[in-house]
Amino acid sequence: MSFLEKIPRLDRRVLYLLVAIAAVVPMFTPLGLPIPTSREVEGLFDYIEELGPGSTVLVAFDFDPQTVGENGPQASGVLRHCFERDVNVLITALSQNAPGMAQEMIETAAAEYDKVNGVDFCYLGYQPYPAIVIMSIGQNFRIPFPQDFYGTPLDSIPLMRAKQNYDDIDLVVSVAAGWVAESWVTYAKERYGCDVALAVTAVQAAQYYTFWNAQQIVGLLPGLKGAAEYQAMMKGAGMSYTDAPLRGMDVQSIEHLLIIAFIVVGNVGFFAERARQRREAAAARAERRGER
Amino acid sequence: MKWEIPLVIVFVTGVILALSDFVPHQSIQDVREFFMSWLQIIGVLAVGLGLVSLTQVNLVKVRRKTPGWIYSVITLFGLVIMLVTGFVWDYREPSNPFQFLFQYALLPIYATMFSLLAFYIASAAFRAFKARNALATTILVTAVIVMLGQVPVGAKLAPLKSWIMEVPNMAGFRAILLGIGLGGVAMALKIVFGIERAYMGRD
Amino acid sequence: MAPTSGADPPAPPTDVRAEDSDDDAGHSITVRWSRSPDDGGGARTVTTYTVLRAESAAGPWEEVGEVPAGTTDYVDRARVEGGQVAHEVTNGTPYYYAVRASGPDGGRQAVADAPAIASAQWYHKGKTPILTVLLVFSALVLYFVRKARKHPEGIYVRPIAGMDAVDEAVGRATEMGRPILYVLGLGTAATISTIASYAILARVAKKVAQYQSRLIIPNYDPIVMAVAQETVRQAYTDAGRPDLYDEKDIFFVTHAQFAYVAAVNGIMLREKTATNFYLGKFYAESLILAETGNIAGSIQIAGTDEASQLPFFVTACDYTLIGEELYAASAYLAREPLLLGALKAQDVLKGLAMAWLLVGALLTSFGVNLLRRWISVQM
Known about the structure:
The complex is a heterotrimer of chains A (292), B (203) and C (379).
Chain A: H1 3-6, H2 12-28, H3 39-50, E1 56-62, H4 68-84, E2 88-92, H5 98-113, E3 121-125, H6 130-137, E4 171-176, H7 180-191, E5 196-200, H8 202-213, E6 220-222, H9 223-236, H10 244-291
Parallel strand pairs in A: 1-2, 1-4, 2-3, 4-5, 5-6
Helix pairs in contact in A: 2-10, 4-5, 4-9, 6-7, 9-10
Chain B: H1 4-20, H2 26-64, H3 69-88, H4 97-128, H5 134-149, H6 158-166, H7 168-192
Chain C: E1 14-20, E2 28-34, E3 48-54, E4 62-68, E5 73-77, E6 79-81, E7 84-87, E8 94-103, E9 106-111, E10 116-117, H1 128-150, H2 161-164, H3 166-176, E11 180-185, H4 192-211, E12 215-219, H5 222-238, E13 250-252, H6 257-271, E14 275-281, H7 285-296, E15 299-304, H8 310-316, E16 319-322, H9 324-334, H10 337-365, H11 370-374
Parallel strand pairs in C: 11-12, 11-14, 12-13, 14-15, 15-16
Antiparallel strand pairs in C: 1-2, 2-5, 3-4, 3-8, 6-7, 8-9, 8-10
Helix pairs in contact in C: 1-10, 3-4, 4-5, 4-9, 6-7, 9-10
């Protein structure tokens, strides 16, 4: 058996090792590849740019820590952008393991921009059954959230006093790793008429382009790429930004090239093996003819 | 009777909840509110059910020393330690033992599991993307274009990638999603009318 | 029409009307007006419109809301602040409305001709298209169910390869003396794909009981677990082997996505399951599960309506039920007239939707929005 024919039987662990190396190396030696921006990301960025100070955006943390690699930079980008433009922010964390993570991200960003809890932002926290919570907000924030995350009744929070339901906010941004993103579109947008933008993992994005094309959402951040573009736009607008998602795109570039290389090598092996099988079949036929 | 009562409950709640979408009047909205609250209450109570199942199954494994019983010990230990720290310390405080476990044990473990995807995508791509025939070759070529167009390295392919995502990919997705949407309505009606009963353990 | 202050305020808005807001539970009145001639043109500037309300035409007027220039409507609705009703719009009470256009030099107001009375509606007019489709569909279901009862043989269901493979997959596990893993996914008991999955589970469990094999079902949701236990228990009883049923094989693992995946992968590798079913709602874990099963060499049958996960299942599994194939599986397996009839109705509705889309797209392209307008829904 030649080397090429052995390829299909290559130990998976070799592939895994190569993937790991390709992920780690660019972390230490950044390539600094340029980030072109796309319309769907610009959609959300421009929407928030156009909102004046004092408008209100609801940022929904609809992801658990496992996808923080993709969703984290998205959430923090949107949060910082709002703070930078003095837009008020309400935050929900409807995913089970989101509250602690969200709390840390909010408090860090708030400290950076000198934002005051209850005046510039309000962290509503977690309630079970996301779809029901999203529907109930349509009637009143106080139905699912009688208090904020810290236990303060909503009516004692200056920012929330005049906020009843979706009519009193300008935009919902759902940063999501699952179906909750869809519930915001179904209920907040379609039922209660509040504008919605989504920031989702790369895998989910393929599905949510339908909402973007049907103009059901004002913007879409697909995966780390979306987060990187968002940071690039913040950088372009002279705001403070973080490097991490941009560097992540270097890693992703290398990984994609590597996987393409795997596909090519896999196909070379596939054709080599098919050629061998054909040769053997031909030889067997010739042998049978010889016997006759 | 064992079968009729649940079917009646399903029918009545199903019809009321469907009606509440078409009747804005407060009276029916209050009924909807009532059912929604019950859904949440039952969901919370069910956590207890899960807890009992988890503890029972793992205790039995430990007692019988079935293969891999040591994992059951770890599971039970994890359950107890998170429960106890969660009860003793306020989960809203930024730093305490519960937060420590959450930030420095749970988060990294979850992130690790998710990152397995990168490895598995590589091995699945290596194995499955073969130019077996014309259709398979189309998938292969499209996958390569989209992968390149998605990252800065292949910026030149980005417009083609966008076209693939927004036209052929979307057409496929829409077809599947429309089918799922209609199928979903059909399923809901079948359940409300009591035609579909498999979820009650019955054909 | 009295000027409220200063010299030369802008002209008032015209044509002020107030009426009960549509399609709601009352407690809301919509005020509409035409812009003041000075709003966007004219000699003076309008900065805001203030909406005022009174319980009699003579006043006293109370300010209820303010909107920027350029706006032509305002919805006056009840508000709760500080746990108290801060502003009430009582159903059944007539309210008079006025709108004041204000600029830097004061403002002038116009009063609506007639008072408005808020009331609750019993029917949401904007949703008529949805109700129509729902009623048409229900009628189709009932019609085809009747038809299927009379001539069950007249309904053809195309083969679903994944379902035809169920018996073989269970048989293989039995021959190998290894258990079968059934994963219901991350949905709740109210998720449609989970409910569809129960129907297939019932069939699988019946086969397992007949072959006296073993079925393992780790669960992500406690209610899903309870239902799965009931489904399997019933299937074992129907197969005449209630004695084989072991509740400890249908257990709750965790409600954390990746912890659940880790546990299921562990079960696959430790128990060396011969056949894995993944039927229900799946997210990022789809490939991690299926690829592990592939490494372990199990036969794998998957199905989900989570479209973005389908490519992963197709790549790593032997059979994949795509979207509604999963929903259709129960009718396919049970061949019961009721289910077949509903399936047929679904096909007919799908055909109608396709025709509507095609004709609608064509007409809209030529500027005729008839079909599009008919199905547009006002929330």
